[in-house]
Amino acid sequence: YIANSLVFVDNTGKFGIGNTDPPEALTVTGVISGSSHALIGGSIGIGTTNPSVLLHAYGDVNTSNAVWGWIQNANTGTSADAGLAFTGGGNTFNIGVDATTDSFVISDTGAAVLSSNQRFVIDTTGNISASGNIVPSSDAGGDLGSSTLEWKDLYIDGTAYLDSATITAGTITG
Predict the structure, then answer these.
(1) β-bridge mates for residue 173, sequence order
(2) Do residues 85 and 93 lie in contact, with contact meaning Cβ atoms separated by under 8 Å?
(3) Which residues 6+ apart lie within 8 Å of 23 measured at CB?
(4) Each residue of 86-145: pLDDT tens digit?
(5) What is the pLDDT of residue 2?
(6) 57, 81, 84: which is closest to 68 by C-alpha?
(7) Burial readout 80-116 (b: 16 or more C-beta within 10 A, e: otherwise)
(8) The dihedral sign for the CA sequence 24, 26, 30, 32
(9) How many CA atoms lie within 13 A of 85 on its CB side?
(10) What sign results for the dihedral spanned by CA atoms 107, 108, 113, 118?
């Protein structure tokens, strides 16, 4: 122990910063800040001392509040994207805010790229766009709308297939 200091090392080699009785090899009590990178081996626990995965955030059981994470870009310009990248099996998907279009985006371009290969987009007016096909999980496995919540208009450029009937250019056959 260094007198009048916030640094402590016990006789087993446990090191405490702001803690005179460190329970772990390194214990920091207070706020850690820095302007560089940190390399941490093992798992990181937020709100838990026993993380079960690489990054484990655990909420307070004494509250009904949801557990939130927040990723915010301090820049407010059109290049201030903020998001997460997920890579597995050789594929990378990104989710986040594309600051250029001010939209929530899912893309599969590569890590930290939201502006191209946008697969799913929700803009600030609530419009949703998707590239590719939107299909049910099984044949005849779902409805689009319901008897009480119907879609108003359907715009199609191409051929519509309705069970055994086909509508093409205003002509119904089948």
Answers:
(1) 166
(2) yes
(3) 14
(4) 888 888 899 999 998 899 999 998 767 888 899 999 999 999 999 988 888 888 778 888
(5) 54
(6) 57
(7) ebebebeeeeeebbbebbbbeeebbbbbebeeebbee
(8) negative
(9) 12
(10) negative
Rg (the chain; Cα; Å):
26
Cα distances (Å, whole numbers) of residue 31 to 18, 34, 39, 44, 59? 10, 10, 18, 16, 19
Please state the pTM of the whole predicted model: 0.64
Distance of CA 123 to the CA centre of its chain: 17
Residue 1 has pLDDT above 60, yes or no: no
The DSSP string of 68-83 is ------S--STT--EE
Give the C-alpha distances (Å, rounded to integers) separating 27 from 11, 17, 57, 150, 152: 15, 6, 19, 59, 61
Which pLDDT value is given to residue 33? 74
- Taking CA atoms, 79 is separated from 10, 70, 100, 112, in Å, by 49, 18, 6, 12
Q: Tokens 């999980």 belong to which residue?
A: 137
Q: Which positions ≥6 away from 54 have C-beta within 8 Å?
A: 43, 44
Beta bridge mates, 17:
7, 28
Report the candidate in 20, 22, 15 with the shortest Cα–Cα distance to residue 4: 20
Which tokens in the block code for residue 103?
């939209």
Cα–Cα distance list, 121 to 83, 106, 138 (Å): 14, 7, 24
